Amino acid sequence: MKAIYGIVVLIAAIYVQTSTAKLQCQLAQGNIPTKWITMVDPCIKKMREQVQVELRAAVSYLAMGAHFSKDTVNRPGFAKIFFDAASEEREHAIKIIEYLLMRGELTSKVGQLIKNPMPAKESWETGVEALKDALGLETDVTIKIRDIIKECETPTNKCKDGVDCEQMYDFNDYHLVDYLTGDFLEEQYRGQRDLAGKTSTLEKMMKTQGALGEFLFDKKLLNGEPL
Protein backbone atom coordinates (compact mmCIF):
# COMPACT_ATOMS: atom_id res chain seq x y z
CA MET A 1 0.00 0.00 0.00
CA LYS A 2 2.85 2.36 0.86
CA ALA A 3 4.49 1.59 -2.49
CA ILE A 4 1.30 2.47 -4.37
CA TYR A 5 0.95 5.71 -2.36
CA GLY A 6 4.56 6.63 -3.20
CA ILE A 7 3.98 6.07 -6.92
CA VAL A 8 0.84 8.25 -6.83
CA VAL A 9 2.73 11.07 -5.09
CA LEU A 10 5.58 10.84 -7.63
CA ILE A 11 3.14 10.98 -10.58
CA ALA A 12 1.38 13.97 -9.01
CA ALA A 13 4.69 15.80 -8.55
CA ILE A 14 5.69 15.19 -12.16
CA TYR A 15 2.29 16.43 -13.33
CA VAL A 16 2.57 19.63 -11.29
CA GLN A 17 6.08 20.35 -12.60
CA THR A 18 4.98 19.74 -16.19
CA SER A 19 1.91 21.94 -15.80
CA THR A 20 3.96 24.73 -14.21
CA ALA A 21 6.49 24.63 -17.03
CA LYS A 22 3.69 24.93 -19.60
CA LEU A 23 2.23 27.94 -17.77
CA GLN A 24 5.52 29.87 -17.66
CA CYS A 25 5.62 32.81 -20.03
CA GLN A 26 8.98 33.68 -21.53
CA LEU A 27 9.04 36.80 -23.66
CA ALA A 28 11.71 37.33 -26.25
CA GLN A 29 14.08 40.24 -25.76
CA GLY A 30 13.07 43.31 -27.73
CA ASN A 31 15.35 44.42 -30.54
CA ILE A 32 15.79 48.00 -29.33
CA PRO A 33 18.29 50.35 -31.02
CA THR A 34 21.14 51.38 -28.73
CA LYS A 35 22.32 54.57 -30.41
CA TRP A 36 20.44 56.62 -27.80
CA ILE A 37 22.54 55.11 -24.99
CA THR A 38 25.46 57.54 -24.76
CA MET A 39 26.96 57.21 -21.27
CA VAL A 40 30.57 56.05 -21.37
CA ASP A 41 32.00 53.32 -19.16
CA PRO A 42 33.88 55.55 -16.67
CA CYS A 43 30.71 57.52 -15.89
CA ILE A 44 28.60 54.38 -15.59
CA LYS A 45 31.09 52.82 -13.17
CA LYS A 46 31.26 55.96 -11.00
CA MET A 47 27.48 56.31 -10.86
CA ARG A 48 27.01 52.67 -9.90
CA GLU A 49 29.61 53.10 -7.15
CA GLN A 50 27.78 56.19 -5.92
CA VAL A 51 24.70 54.08 -5.18
CA GLN A 52 26.81 52.16 -2.66
CA VAL A 53 28.21 55.41 -1.24
CA GLU A 54 24.71 56.76 -0.61
CA LEU A 55 23.50 53.49 0.92
CA ARG A 56 26.50 53.33 3.26
CA ALA A 57 25.70 56.87 4.37
CA ALA A 58 22.06 55.88 4.93
CA VAL A 59 23.05 52.89 7.07
CA SER A 60 25.48 55.04 9.07
CA TYR A 61 22.72 57.54 9.83
CA LEU A 62 20.40 54.68 10.81
CA ALA A 63 23.03 53.53 13.30
CA MET A 64 23.21 57.06 14.72
CA GLY A 65 19.44 57.33 14.98
CA ALA A 66 19.20 53.94 16.68
CA HIS A 67 21.95 54.86 19.16
CA PHE A 68 20.29 58.09 20.27
CA SER A 69 16.91 56.33 20.49
CA LYS A 70 18.14 53.88 23.14
CA ASP A 71 16.58 54.29 26.58
CA THR A 72 20.04 54.64 28.09
CA VAL A 73 20.80 57.62 25.82
CA ASN A 74 17.33 59.07 25.18
CA ARG A 75 18.07 61.95 22.82
CA PRO A 76 14.96 61.98 20.57
CA GLY A 77 16.00 65.20 18.84
CA PHE A 78 19.28 63.73 17.66
CA ALA A 79 17.51 60.50 16.70
CA LYS A 80 15.04 62.47 14.59
CA ILE A 81 17.60 64.39 12.53
CA PHE A 82 19.68 61.26 11.93
CA PHE A 83 16.70 59.13 10.88
CA ASP A 84 15.64 61.96 8.56
CA ALA A 85 19.17 62.06 7.13
CA ALA A 86 19.06 58.28 6.54
CA SER A 87 15.86 58.71 4.50
CA GLU A 88 17.49 61.47 2.45
CA GLU A 89 20.53 59.33 1.63
CA ARG A 90 18.27 56.44 0.61
CA GLU A 91 16.37 58.83 -1.68
CA HIS A 92 19.68 59.89 -3.22
CA ALA A 93 20.48 56.26 -4.02
CA ILE A 94 17.05 55.87 -5.64
CA LYS A 95 17.56 59.04 -7.69
CA ILE A 96 20.88 57.74 -9.03
CA ILE A 97 19.30 54.40 -9.95
CA GLU A 98 16.46 56.24 -11.69
CA TYR A 99 18.96 58.35 -13.61
CA LEU A 100 20.86 55.27 -14.80
CA LEU A 101 17.56 53.74 -15.89
CA MET A 102 16.66 56.89 -17.80
CA ARG A 103 19.99 56.71 -19.64
CA GLY A 104 19.53 53.01 -20.46
CA GLU A 105 22.37 51.83 -18.25
CA LEU A 106 20.74 49.37 -15.84
CA THR A 107 20.00 46.43 -18.08
CA SER A 108 22.30 44.00 -16.25
CA LYS A 109 24.01 43.35 -12.90
CA VAL A 110 21.32 45.23 -10.99
CA GLY A 111 21.89 43.08 -7.91
CA GLN A 112 25.47 44.34 -7.60
CA LEU A 113 24.20 47.85 -6.88
CA ILE A 114 22.97 46.84 -3.44
CA LYS A 115 25.40 44.84 -1.36
CA ASN A 116 25.78 44.83 2.43
CA PRO A 117 26.79 48.32 3.61
CA MET A 118 27.80 48.43 7.26
CA PRO A 119 28.19 51.48 9.53
CA ALA A 120 31.71 52.38 10.62
CA LYS A 121 30.50 52.96 14.20
CA GLU A 122 27.54 51.96 16.33
CA SER A 123 27.88 54.19 19.39
CA TRP A 124 28.84 57.79 20.20
CA GLU A 125 29.87 59.32 23.52
CA THR A 126 28.27 62.72 22.85
CA GLY A 127 26.09 64.55 20.40
CA VAL A 128 29.10 66.61 19.32
CA GLU A 129 30.96 63.45 18.34
CA ALA A 130 28.00 62.27 16.27
CA LEU A 131 27.57 65.64 14.54
CA LYS A 132 31.26 65.72 13.65
CA ASP A 133 31.01 62.20 12.22
CA ALA A 134 27.92 63.24 10.26
CA LEU A 135 29.80 66.23 8.83
CA GLY A 136 32.67 63.95 7.84
CA LEU A 137 30.23 61.55 6.23
CA GLU A 138 28.61 64.32 4.18
CA THR A 139 32.01 65.66 3.15
CA ASP A 140 33.04 62.20 1.88
CA VAL A 141 29.81 61.93 -0.13
CA THR A 142 30.42 65.39 -1.62
CA ILE A 143 33.96 64.44 -2.65
CA LYS A 144 32.64 61.32 -4.39
CA ILE A 145 30.06 63.37 -6.30
CA ARG A 146 32.75 65.85 -7.35
CA ASP A 147 34.85 62.91 -8.55
CA ILE A 148 31.98 61.78 -10.78
CA ILE A 149 31.68 65.28 -12.23
CA LYS A 150 35.41 65.42 -12.98
CA GLU A 151 35.35 61.98 -14.57
CA CYS A 152 32.34 62.70 -16.74
CA GLU A 153 33.60 66.07 -17.93
CA THR A 154 36.80 64.53 -19.27
CA PRO A 155 36.79 60.69 -19.15
CA THR A 156 40.37 59.38 -19.11
CA ASN A 157 40.02 55.60 -19.38
CA LYS A 158 42.19 53.99 -22.02
CA CYS A 159 40.43 52.60 -25.06
CA LYS A 160 40.20 48.88 -25.65
CA ASP A 161 41.63 47.29 -28.77
CA GLY A 162 39.49 47.85 -31.82
CA VAL A 163 37.44 50.62 -30.18
CA ASP A 164 37.27 54.14 -31.53
CA CYS A 165 38.91 56.07 -28.68
CA GLU A 166 37.51 59.43 -29.70
CA GLN A 167 34.00 58.07 -30.01
CA MET A 168 34.06 56.26 -26.66
CA TYR A 169 35.99 58.50 -24.29
CA ASP A 170 36.39 61.99 -25.73
CA PHE A 171 32.99 62.81 -24.33
CA ASN A 172 31.66 65.47 -21.99
CA ASP A 173 28.40 64.30 -20.42
CA TYR A 174 26.88 67.76 -19.98
CA HIS A 175 23.51 66.47 -18.82
CA LEU A 176 24.90 64.25 -16.07
CA VAL A 177 27.31 66.94 -14.87
CA ASP A 178 24.50 69.51 -14.78
CA TYR A 179 22.21 67.05 -12.96
CA LEU A 180 24.75 66.30 -10.24
CA THR A 181 25.80 69.93 -9.85
CA GLY A 182 22.25 71.24 -9.57
CA ASP A 183 20.42 68.45 -7.75
CA PHE A 184 23.12 67.02 -5.51
CA LEU A 185 25.94 69.47 -4.82
CA GLU A 186 23.64 72.29 -3.75
CA GLU A 187 22.01 70.05 -1.16
CA GLN A 188 25.38 68.68 -0.03
CA TYR A 189 26.90 72.10 0.57
CA ARG A 190 23.84 73.35 2.45
CA GLY A 191 23.81 70.20 4.56
CA GLN A 192 27.49 70.53 5.42
CA ARG A 193 27.04 74.13 6.49
CA ASP A 194 24.05 73.19 8.63
CA LEU A 195 25.97 70.40 10.40
CA ALA A 196 28.98 72.65 10.94
CA GLY A 197 26.73 75.28 12.53
CA LYS A 198 24.99 72.74 14.76
CA THR A 199 28.34 71.35 15.89
CA SER A 200 29.63 74.80 16.77
CA THR A 201 26.48 75.73 18.70
CA LEU A 202 26.41 72.47 20.67
CA GLU A 203 30.09 72.71 21.59
CA LYS A 204 29.53 76.21 22.98
CA MET A 205 26.43 75.11 24.92
CA MET A 206 28.24 72.14 26.44
CA LYS A 207 31.25 74.27 27.33
CA THR A 208 29.10 76.62 29.39
CA GLN A 209 26.34 74.26 30.59
CA GLY A 210 27.79 70.75 30.42
CA ALA A 211 25.37 67.86 29.93
CA LEU A 212 22.44 70.25 30.38
CA GLY A 213 23.56 72.02 27.22
CA GLU A 214 23.21 68.81 25.20
CA PHE A 215 19.81 68.14 26.75
CA LEU A 216 18.53 71.63 25.80
CA PHE A 217 20.06 71.32 22.33
CA ASP A 218 18.26 68.00 21.83
CA LYS A 219 14.93 69.59 22.76
CA LYS A 220 15.50 72.31 20.16
CA LEU A 221 16.22 69.66 17.53
CA LEU A 222 13.08 67.75 18.45
CA ASN A 223 10.92 70.87 18.22
CA GLY A 224 12.54 72.07 15.02
CA GLU A 225 13.69 75.33 16.63
CA PRO A 226 16.47 77.38 14.96
CA LEU A 227 19.96 76.87 16.35
Automatic annotation (TrEMBL):
Subcellular location: Golgi apparatus; Secreted
Gene Ontology BP term (one): iron ion transport
Catalytic function, reaction form: 4 Fe(2+) + O2 + 4 H(+) = 4 Fe(3+) + 2 H2O
Keyword Endoplasmic reticulum included in the entry's annotation: no
Domain Ferritin-like diiron: 37-206
One matching Pfam family: Ferritin
GO MF annotations in UniProt: ferric iron binding; ferrous iron binding; ferroxidase activity
Protein known as: Ferritin
UniProt source species: Timema californicum (California timema)
